[in-house]
Every structure is written in structure tokens, then in C-alpha cells.
Amino acid sequence: MKLAAVDIGSNAIRLQITNVTHYEGSINFKKLEYLRFPLRLGMDVFHVQKISEKNRRKFVKLMKAFKLLIDLYEVDDYMVCATSAMRESSNGKEIVDEVKQDIGLKIQIIDGNREAELINLALWSYIDDKPYLHIDVGGGSTELNIYNKQQKVASKSFKIGSVRALDDNIPETVWRSMNKFISDHISKKDKITCIGTGGNINKIFELSNPSKNKRYISIEKITEIKAYLETFSYDDRVNKLNLNPDRADVIIPASKIYLAAMSAASSKRMIVPDVGLKDGLMNVLYERNKMKKSNN
Known about the structure:
CATH superfamily of the largest domain: Exopolyphosphatase. Domain 2
CATH class of the largest domain: Alpha Beta
Structural class: alpha/beta
Low-confidence stretches: none
Shape: globular
Protein name: Phosphatase
Domain Ppx/GppA phosphatase N-terminal: 29-282
Number of strands: 11
Organism: Belliella filtrata
Strand content: 15-25%
Number of helices: 12
CATH architecture of the largest domain: 2-Layer Sandwich
Largest sheet: 6 strands, mixed
Helix content: 40-55%
Pfam family, one: Ppx-GppA
Distance between the termini: 12 Å
InterPro entries: ATPase_NBD, GppA/Ppx_hydrolase, Ppx_GppA_N
Number of domains: 2
């Protein structure tokens, strides 16, 4: 069974094609293709509330390329989901309709709660009976989920994201709202472990030079990496640290968001599982196709 997931974010757009096989009682997910294209839709939307004509044309071309790959790999099923930038854009639905009509690719614009639900599907193997705060920082929004005894007890999406934070234009009321949500649902006596998802925390984790098989990073180490990054100019982060251009400017604002949430929860460490929306989409696709496949 071949499955494809597309995550249309505010800072970049990702396609993953996966082959699912069954062997000796186990299920194997093998990545056949992964593409990340740095189309920053959020920069348009968070400033002028719509996707520019230039980026609209690039987006449609990209969807054509993705549809060709989906067809060439003879994918059995796919899901394409758009998040913060597309849902806040005044012409987002119009562009989605254009892609459906001209290319035959169906895009779902999902809200923050649905986005969090999909990401959560990829997290369950990391969650036990202890309390956890899941922090997912995207370009346009941050999703927070709180777990206790393997149950999600609270969830909320905030208009705080790495692209949105580039110009320091996030109102103080939004920051206070996020801190209040955390303090309302997490007791100071709880020893909370955070779970961080998103491209920026994955890169911060990589820069920390973790030991083999380690998936934890401390709040002190995140603070240290942030301070280290701040000693470099944008050009140096691209050329000396070899960061992607669309990562080099947002990684510092993103680190501030993770640190703010961790501090509000009095959390000392974070699990970085390197999963995201596309992994949750794969989970949904597999579940809805496994019975169909077994009946054929």
C-alpha cells in the first residue's frame, strides 16, 4: 500500500510518500519520497491577509508537481492539509478550489484543533501515565496539548508562530493567554515533561549534538543553543551553520516560543520525537485503507 501526505504550512510545504508492508506479523512504513519546498505563505497572510499573486502561481505549480509524483508512484490514497496561513488567507479557499478544478488535487483547510489531533496520532508511543505538555510550533500558530494518565485533558491553538513572530508583532495579550492556559491546567507541583514538534525544535535538537538514541533536550540546552545562534548574523547562520535560508531567520523566534511554554509549565526537559502533521496524516490514511486492502 502506497500513501501520500502533504502538509501545507506557513513557512514550508512538505510531501511524503510511504510504502506500507506487512511482514511476519509486523507493519513496516518505508519512506519512498520526502520533499520540503520553502514557500512562505505566512509572510503574505500575516501582513496583508491574503496570498500574493506571485506566491499563488508558485503554489499552484508546486501542487502540480506533487500531483505528478503522487500519480507516478501510483499512490493508493493521499491527504493534503493546509494550516494557519491558508485558513487565515482571504483568498485561501479560492486557491484551494482552483487546485481542485485545474489539477484534481483535493486540499483540506483544517483548524488548529484538527491540526493538533492529527499530530497527536503520531505521539502516542511517547506518552505514558506521566503528565506531558505537547508544544507544536509552526510558522503561524502554536498548538498546545496537555496529557495526564495517557488522556488528553486540554488542548488549544494560539496565533503565535515563528513566521508571525519575525517582526515581533504578536500582541502581549496572546502571550498572556498562552501562559494562562498552561497555568490553568498544570500545577506547579507537577513534574511536567514537554514534547516538542516542528522543524525548528528538530534543528535545535540536532545542533545540541545529542548522544546516540537520545531524544531528550533540557531547557538549559535549548537556552544555550538559542544564545549560540544569536551570536551569528543571518548570513552566517546560512553559510557557517549551513541552515536553510527559510530556517535561519525563524529558528530564534521559534526557540523563544518553546522556552516560553516550557517556563510557564516549569518544565526542565523536552522529548523531541521528530514527528509532525505528515505522520499523523499517514496514520489516518493507513487506518482508513487497511480494511479496504485486506478485503481485496
